[in-house]
Amino acid sequence: MKRAHRKLLMLSCAALCSPLLTGRVVAENSSWFSRQTSVPKSEPSKTPQSKAPAQPRAPSGQSGSSEVEKSIPSMVPVSGDNAAYIAFDQGQYLTALKLAEEEAKRGEPTAYTLMGRIYGDGLGVPKDDSKAYTNYAKAAELGDVQGTFEAGVALAEGRGVKKNRKVAAELFEKAALTGHAEANYNLGLLFLKGDGKPQNPIRAFQHIQYAAQKGLAQAQYDLAELYQTGTGTEPNALEAARWLSRAAEQGLTAAQYDYAVRLLQGFGLTKDESKIPMLMRAAADKGVPGAQNRMAYLYLDGIKVKKDLVEAAKWRLIAKKNGFADKTLDTMVAKLPQAERRKAATEASAWNDKIRVGEAQ
Q: How far is CA 17 from CA 48, 141, 221, in A?
């Protein structure tokens, strides 16, 4: 059976280090422990996990996506060594649970991890964090890397078990030694703050760097901050820009906004300056008021876009509705001819309606 989904603990480095930029946006993953989940694919995993060096390293510049795309086979018979995961992928959660229970009786570690996922997310059964942790802990005891990581997440959050970040750190470290990217990232965060591990910026940098090289966008975002502030490494503005660019390319909202601002300030990579409108628009479309207001300035001043006062007014009205104050732009809008103000208001309203429909779906 294959490992279950991955969960990432996301603590933005901005909460621990000096801000990269004035007005830095709070990342989607700015709380201590929030998770990003994906669905396991249907393929057996009977070979033992290989060990990685104690100090995590990866080839320079290596990147990629940490996401595991959902794969749902059509009418695949639910049988064989991988039956539980095939059933899971097809949404047959109760069948998956039953099959996993049978696998668990035969001592299959990943079966416990899958059961932990089902109970933890309440898939076909009532959500039960206690049962989820119990299964993850058993998987960890039997040596499943993903189960070890999940048990660490539960202990770090106090979800289904009493919070214990020291034990969580031990589990993250165990999983990190196998090359588990998210475990390395979480371990780095604990070293950074000195929570569950002694505060050690150098170790924090090493683990977060490894996760960033493995393609985790949040790790890339935080690594940029470490380079910018010289935390655990020598300050390096060029490396900070490079890693922020990579996180932005992966669609991390905070990175898209921050990097667009850096480019406007002349601190990004020259080759990326043409991306300013695209990055700022991406963050604006995801509801970042600061990005929405900066879109107004892009159109007001014609920065990498065609100057358009109506479009500028539209974005100002959107940002204002979301609570962003700017008297200069408000004055600009007030001075527009009535027809242009009305058009901007109509377009702003249409944009808000479109966003609301998208959120509802």
A: 39, 36, 12
